[in-house]
Specification:
This protein is mainly alpha-helical and 644 residues long. Among the domains are: 41-310, Glycosyltransferase (Alpha/alpha barrel), CATH 1.50.10.20; 337-481, Glycosyltransferase (Alpha/alpha barrel), CATH 1.50.10.20. Helices cover 46% and strands 3% of the residues. The chain contains 22 helices and five strands. Strands 1-5-4 form a three-stranded antiparallel beta sheet, with no helix packed on it. A two-stranded antiparallel ribbon has the order 2-3. Strand 4 and strand 5 form a beta hairpin. Helix 2 packs across helix 4, helix 4 runs antiparallel to helix 5 (111-122) and helix 14 runs parallel beside helix 16. It is globular, with a radius of gyration of 25 Å.
Length: 644
């Protein structure tokens, strides 16, 4: 922890902290101007990497030992693996971790494996794992294919008007699903199935009769379960002429969307499925397409000492954009290093490529940014709003065209409900959440509060009159989504603190009277969440059951969100904000790093299924909050002044 000079007035201490942390943030800047932090998920991604190697008939002793050490370090006392550090055990994550450890040479009779096996069997065994885990088990011959939902590759040829069409699911579902369609159609089999895990099943898999479940318990779900049985019975009779054409269409999609060394969809599960699909279809190891697909996976590996994990994706645009906001708040508008960050971002704008989103917005010009280095088929609405706001705040005319194109695209991506989804508009075919494949509950990309708030903030910051209609529709959507206690659900961050912060910081620029009852209710809810130490904390358990998230301690990221939310609601001179600032001032920070010390996961991939630790959140958000407090607390008429 950096020491503060004793005896200085608190504002001087805060100023010194802001200067010091801003310099540290600039200190990790790459030569081309951008910043990128690690992005960490749970045990499943590194475990799946081990499975990928064996599917291909490969092994790598050094890497497998690194994964083994990483997995063992994350095991809970009860033998399970959680979806986030400190969370409850998850059956599917634990099955994959156990399986990978056994492949990596961990003795199945060792104490960690005995604990894991006992826990898995106590939960009903590997047959009760989720859909994606069961597909993996089928690929290795551990369960029969009837243990997975029917996923006929012929869906590639369904018309767009049909109840199911590949364009009606989220981009992440699409890119994962399409190569999987080929694997299922071919009944693909791993090259190395030598490591058996029969000990993880309560009932021998060939005797198991109950595999599929109704994901949401609805009547529609029961219909889909019946349909799944019919499809399993009918699938063997599908003519090869029909199947072959559908397989070629799926293959063409995957190869056409490979996205260079950034990979299919720029997310690990899709990349791994693409590699397995190409191997199954006979692509040679030295085929340029196979080589680039393999490289995309290699670039996700992170060594931490003698431990190896694999990132689910990378986040350079998100990290650079949010860091830019923190540094702008810290007074770096004219710093050439900030200019280099924005110039790098400008070079990443997608201006000519028309991605999958054009299915529903064919007349809208491209203008967004991806989350990763490159992902032109899937620009991210959230990133686009955040980047455009940073460029606009910096004020240089050289970004005028970037901002114009971004706002044009954002306006065009608004859904009829008034909200914005993360990657596509009108992705609201909610009946599809009832298909057996959708047990993860994240098949779709509907509008969300947090993304909508960012879009409102961006359009209102840039030109509130020009985008008045879109802003008003967005505000109506936000009001309709507010919960009775005053908070908002956070889809992409944990959870109600994130959602409520996201909304409150967009309102001033949108012209909302901060004295309105719905705004005051939100501010009051935030105040009730403050801990005695002045900080804020909300565990990912709140996605399972509201109220359970209060089991975690205060942390810098969520304290920063709550603090900025309160300041945006006109509470800059409140005791709550002062206490939150003191918490950040005194909270431990990492040596030789821009990060405050923070071990918790506060990012959300898919609620209740997949969570993320953005290593950058503990760097730029606390800096941003402290710098904003420094500016606003000294103003005669304190205003946030920007869209977020």
């Amino acid at each position: 922890m950096a020491s503060m000079t004793s005896g200085l007035p608190r504002e001087n201490e805060r100023q010194e902290l802001i200067r010091e942390q801003a310099e540290k943030l600039f200190g990790i800047q790459k030569d081309d101007g951008h910043l990128v932090f690690e992005l960490e998920a749970d045990a499943t991604i590194p475990a799946e990497y081990v499975l990928l190697l064996r599917f291909l008939g490969e092994s790598n002793a050094k890497e497998e030992e690194g994964v083994r050490r990483y997995l063992l370090a994350d095991q809970k006392e009860n033998g399970a693996w959680p979806l986030f550090r400190g969370g409850a055990g998850d059956l599917s994550a634990t099955v994959k971790a156990y399986w990978a450890l056994k492949i990596c040479g961990q003795d199945p009779e060792s104490e960690p494996m005995l604990r894991a096996r006992t826990w898995i069997l106590g939960k009903g065994g590997a047959a009760r794992a989720n859909v994606f885990t069961r597909y993996s088990l089928a690929l290795f011959g551990h369960i029969p294919w009837r243990g997975t939902p029917s996923l006929p590759v012929e869906v590639m040829r369904l018309p767009k008007w049909f109840p199911f069409h590949i364009s009606k699911v989220a981009y992440w579902s699409r890119t994962v699903m399409i190569p999987l369609l080929v694997l299922v159609a071919k009944k693909a089999r791993a090259k190395d199935c030598s490591v058996k895990i029969d000990e993880l099943f309560v009932t021998p898999p060939h005797e198991e009769r109950r595999w599929q479940t109704n994901p949401n318990g609805t009547a529609v779900g029961h219909v889909f379960l019946a349909l799944d049985k019919i499809l399993h019975a009918v699938e063997p009779t599908i003519p090869e002429s029909l199947r072959g054409g559908a397989i070629r269409e799926a293959e063409e999609f995957v190869v056409g969307h490979l996205n260079g060394e950034d990979g299919l969809g720029a997310i690990y599960p899709a990349m791994a499925n693409a590699v397995m699909m190409m191997a199954t279809l006979g692509y040679a190891d030295d085929d340029p397409r196979m080589k680039i697909a393999r490289k995309s996976i290699d670039l996700l590996k992170v060594w931490r000492g003698d431990q190896l994990y694999v990132q689910p994706c990378v986040s350079p645009v998100w990290d650079t954009a949010l860091s830019s906001h923190a540094l702008l708040e810290a007074g770096a508008s004219n710093d050439p290093r900030l200019g280099a960050m924005l110039d790098w971002l400008a070079s990443k704008q997608i201006l000519d490529h028309r991605g999958d989103w054009t299915v529903r917005r064919p007349g809208v010009r491209p203008g967004g940014w991806a989350f990763q280095y490159e992902n032109p088929d899937y620009p991210d609405v959230d990133d686009t709003a955040v980047v455009a706001m940073a460029m606009h705040r910096q004020g240089s005319e050289r970004y005028a065209e970037n901002i114009e194109r971004a706002c044009e695209w954002l306006e065009g991506m608004q859904s009829a409900s008034g909200g914005w989804g993360a990657f596509e508009p009108e992705n609201e075919h909610f009946y599809l959440n009832a298909i057996p494949f959708a047990d993860h509950g994240a098949l779709l990309d509907p509008p969300t509060v947090d993304v909508t708030a960012r879009c409102i903030g961006c359009l209102a910051q840039v030109d509130p009159e020009r985008y008045k209609s879109a802003i008003e529709k967005g505000l109506d959507y936000l009001k309709s989504e507010q919960l009775p206690d005053g908070s908002w659900f956070g889809r992409w961050g944990a959870n109600y603190i994130y959602g409520t912060w996201s909304v409150l910081v967009c309102l001033e620029q949108a012209g909302v009277d901060l004295r309105e009852p719905w705004v005051r209710r939100a501010a009051q809810w935030l105040k009730t969440q403050q801990r005695p130490d002045g900080g804020f904390g909300e565990g990912l358990e709140s996605y399972e059951e509201p109220g359970r998230g209060d089991i975690v301690h205060s942390n810098p990221s969520q304290t920063a969100w709550a603090m900025m939310g309160l300041m945006a609601a006109g509470e800059v001179r409140s005791d709550e904000v002062a206490k939150a600032s003191a918490f950040l001032q005194n909270a431990p920070r990492e040596e030789d790093s821009p990060r405050w010390a923070e071990g918790l996961y506060t990012g959300t991939g898919f609620p209740r299924v997949f969570y993320l630790k953005y290593h950058g959140y503990a760097a730029f958000f606390p800096l941003w909050a402290q710098a904003r407090y420094e500016r606003m607390s000294k103003a005669n008429d304190p205003r946030q002044g920007w869209g977020m």
